[in-house]
Each structure stands twice: as C-alpha cells, then as structure tokens.
Amino acid sequence: SQQGEEDPQALSIQEGENATMNCSYKTSINNLQWYRQNSGRGLVHLILIRSNEREKHSGRLRVTLDTSKKSSSLLITASRAADTASYFCATAGAGSARQLTFGSGTQLTVLP
Amino acid sequence: DADVTQTPRNRITKTGKRIMLECSQTKGHDRMYWYRQDPGLGLQLIYYSFDVKDINKGEISDGYSVSRQAQAKFSLSLESAIPNQTALYFCATSDLRGEQYFGPGTRLTVT
Predict the structure, then answer these.
(1) What is the pLDDT of chain A when averaged over all its residues?
(2) DSSP code string of B31-58
(3) pLDDT digits (tens, 9 = 90+) for A20-52
(4) The pairing of beta strand A85-93 with beta strand A29-37
(5) Any chain A CB within 8 A of the CB of B62?
(6) Which residue among A2, A42, A92 places its CB closest to the CB of B1?
(7) Please, which residues bridge with residue B92 across strands?
(8) Using CB atoms, which residue from A4, A42, A97 is nearest to B102?
C-alpha cells in the first residue's frame, strides 16, 4: 500500500510557468521528502521537510507541509523543459524513520 | 548515480530461473534498500538493511531474498522468477537524515 498520493497524476505546462504538485498522506510522519525521476532512471532527492517545519526552499523549489491536513505541496517556479520528469513524495513514519513510503507520482511535462 | 551502482542494467530471464541483482555503493552509508517499480507506479520496498547483521522485510518481500555481504554490497535474489516479477528494480542507500540515493536501476523481464 502507498502512503502518499500525488495530485494531479499528470501536469502539462509551458516553459516559464510555475508547476504545483500536491501530496496527501494518511499517518503521522517524521519527515516528508520529494524526489524526481527522469524516464526509466533512478530517483534523485530534491528536498526534505521535517514534521515541525512548514516551508522550505531550495533554488526554484518551494515545499510546504501542513500536518493538520496531512498534505504537502511542491512548487517549481519558472519551469524549464529540463524539469520534465516524474515527481514523487515519500514519507518517513513518525514511529520509525527507518523506511520511506512512496506515492504514485506526478508526471510533469514542460513544453518549450 | 555513480555512487550507487547496479548490475546487470538489463536482464531477460525465463520463468523458474534463479537470478541475482547486485548493488554496490561508495557513499559509506550503513543503510541500503531494494525497491521495485512497476510502470506508472511509485516504488515498493522489498527489503532493507541497516547494517551487515540487520536485514528487514519490506512490504513485498515474498519471492525475494537478500544478502548483505559487506557494508558496501547488498544483493537481491529471485529464487524462482515468475512473469509478474517483471519490473524495474532500484537499490538505494541513505544517510542518517534519511535522504536516499538511488542507483540507475535494473530492468528485469521474466518470460
């Protein structure tokens, strides 16, 4: 079973626009992470936000976390064609941060 | 990806065959993981290991076994491969913060 569910499943935007992806989860977490996967390749870690944090920034990425709603969002500003990829959220449970549970991902396509 | 390597990168095998996928890492991490990914889906955890003597089942361990030969090596075996084990397999390591570093994947096809 998958803890996180991303929304939307697919998103297509023009280069330069912002892209927002959402993740909802079911149980209490220690932290939530976002990963990117280019087609058929390994996942690349983007950002980690702890349960006591509400917002984090990394370059063009902004992540928010609302533990009361059990949800997170990933915003990519000024998107580029190279941002085309699948994006996954992953949660580390509050009881044990030993493993991650991944969502099913959002496929982002940035059109040039 | 170079810090975590997987062999082979692609493998086609027949039903009933035993197959081993290997993973090596140079990051010096104690924690290692094996995942499978089916088309259009996220990753499912097969097994994980926090040190050479610590092996744990993940959510889909049936039909798989693992061996942690050293801190840097973690192998996954399919004792008797079946077609529904056709998938993309990833090895990963993690640091103490829990951020994971993935290998390039092994594409396995069972005919």
Answers:
(1) 92
(2) EEEEEEE-TTS-EEEEEEEEETTEEEE-
(3) 999 999 989 999 999 999 988 899 999 999 999
(4) antiparallel
(5) no
(6) A42
(7) B33, B102
(8) A42
Give residue B1's pLDDT. 47
CB contact set of B5 (below 8 Å; sequence gap of 6+): B23, B24, B25, B103, B104
Q: What one-letter code names the amino acid at B88?
A: L
Please check the confidence at residue A2 and state whether its pLDDT lies above 60.
no
Whether the pLDDT of residue B43 is over 50: the answer is yes
**Would the CB atoms of B90 and A42 count as touching at under 8 Å?**
yes
Q: Are B98 and A92 a contacting pair at CB < 8 A?
A: yes
Query: What does the block give as tokens for A50?
Result: 């702890």
Both tokens of B23, joined, read 């993973």
Q: What is the pLDDT of residues A83-96, one digit of tens each?
A: 999 999 999 987 66
B102 and A30 in contact by Cβ < 8 A?
no
CA A80 to each of CA A16, A45, A107, B81: distance values in angstroms, whole numbers, following the listed order: 6, 18, 14, 41
Contact indicator for B102, A40 with CB cutoff of 8 Å: no
Is the confidence at residue B12, as pLDDT, over 80?
yes
Longest dimension (CA), chain B: 40
